[in-house]
Write a structure and sequence with these properties.
With about 250 residues, this protein is of the alpha+beta class. It is elongated and about 80 Å long. This is Spermatogenesis associated 6. Belongs to the SPATA6 family. One of its GO terms (cellular component) is sperm head-tail coupling apparatus.
């Protein structure tokens, strides 16, 4: 997701402190701030802040929307101290109602910020726009984490505290270890098999799941966004390999 900040206006307001100020933006637990600008209204930023967040435990787009509704984003103007703030749930901030947007592409918004006690002017007005890219990720990495958690053993101590221990491993003889390693290396997929593209059934099923996600997102009416799959990549990559050979004299 990206937030493109345009300007902040506050007609008739003169700041006594002539130091530079900046705008701080907090979204989904991530904090970024703009470059400092002169403390004179209107404030011109023309700056884009990019935020990236992965939700490993969310599969249904509806669950993602509910999470965005529960979490809030914060904006504040800082000039040594807080001058004005703005707070809104993340869904409405990223996907506003079309009636609230304007501009050439219909994406620009204007919001009134809440001024602090030290700010004597009228409420500042912030003009900005947002854009979002929703990417469907594969679950292989998430499954490996879950399997790792299942391998942990939790038990209670007499004082009521929980302790976590790894399961004990049986000690094997060197001969058995060599046999197991040889078997595992044989059972593991080769480089050639990893580079092959998915089977037609796998591709068809992945497309069906992605289509379901697209339909769910359209039903939720999130507004302007872009949806992309991790599988929208070439099935394999051809790498250039340089082989050096040593020539021995006859």
């Amino acid at each position: 997701m990206s937030v493109f900040l345009l300007q902040i206006t506050c007609p008739g307001m003169l700041l006594k402190d002539k130091e530079e100020l900046y705008l701080s933006v907090s979204v989904l637990g991530q904090h970024q701030k703009t470059q400092c600008v002169p403390a004179a209204f209107p404030l011109f930023f023309q700056e884009k802040l990019v935020f990236k967040k992965t939700f490993a435990d969310i599969v249904d787009p509806g669950d993602l929307v509910e999470l965005l509704e529960r979490r809030f984003c914060f904006l504040c103007i800082l000039l040594g101290k807080v001058l004005a703030t703005y707070e809104e749930n993340t869904r409405d901030f990223l996907f506003p109602d079309p009636k609230l947007t304007r501009g050439h592409h219909g994406f620009d918004r204007e919001i009134l910020m809440k001024r602090s006690s030290s700010f004597t002017g009228i409420a500042p007005k912030l003009r900005f726009s947002t854009s979002s890219l929703i990417t469907e990720s594969l679950l292989s990495s998430g499954r490996s984490h879950i399997q790792g958690d299942l391998n942990l053993v939790h038990h209670s101590t007499p004082n009521g505290k929980l302790q976590t221990k790894l399961p004990k491993k049986n000690t094997l003889s060197p001969e058995k270890n060599r046999h197991i390693l040889a078997t595992k290396s044989y059972e593991q997929p080769t480089i050639a098999s990893k580079s092959r593209s998915p089977s037609p059934y796998t591709k068809r099923r992945m497309c069906e799941l992605s289509q379901e996600a697209r339909q769910r997102l359209a039903h939720l009416k999130l507004g302007p966004y872009e949806f992309r799959r991790d599988t929208d990549k070439p099935p394999f990559v051809v790498r250039r390999v340089c082989i050096l050979s040593k020539v021995f004299p006859a």
